[in-house]
Amino acid sequence: MATCEVCGNDYEMAFEVRAAGAVHVFDSLECAAQRMAPNCDNCNCRILGHGLQTDGQFFCCAHCARQKGHAQLVDHA
């Protein structure tokens, strides 16, 4: 069995996520999102979709990007 690096649960169905040269072990998608997904730099929500990125900042939507002065970013419709 493997131990989740977020919650510490020792779980027989744990899985690995490989990203940026590192290997992470989780017991659920919730724990994986908690550790891996960025937060919006405006509203602080967890970005689970595509989101937007500029100048090292992450945003959940174009509205949040505009709130931080990034008018050039738009949502895709």
Descriptive report:
By secondary structure, the protein is of the alpha+beta class. It has 2 domains: 1-36, no CATH class; 38-77, no CATH class. The protein contains 2 helices and 6 strands, in the order ββββαββα. It has helices at 29-36, 62-67, and strands at 2-3, 10-11, 15-19, 22-26, 52-54, 57-59. The protein has a two-stranded antiparallel ribbon with strand order 1-2. The chain has a two-stranded antiparallel sheet with strand order 3-4. A two-stranded antiparallel sheet has the order 5-6. The chain is elongated, with a radius of gyration of 16 Å.
Give the count of helical stretches.
2
Number of domains: 2
Q: What is the averaged pLDDT score?
A: 94
What is the straight-line distance between the termini?
43 Å
| Radius of gyration, in angstroms, nearest whole number | 16 Å
Strand-pairing-aware structural class: alpha+beta
Q: What is the N-to-C succession of helices and strands?
A: EEEEHEEH
Helix content: 10-25%
Strand order of the largest sheet: 1-2
Percent strand equals 25-35%
Low-confidence sequence ranges: none
Shape category: elongated
Number of E-type strands: 6
How would a textbook summarize the main sheet?
2 strands, antiparallel
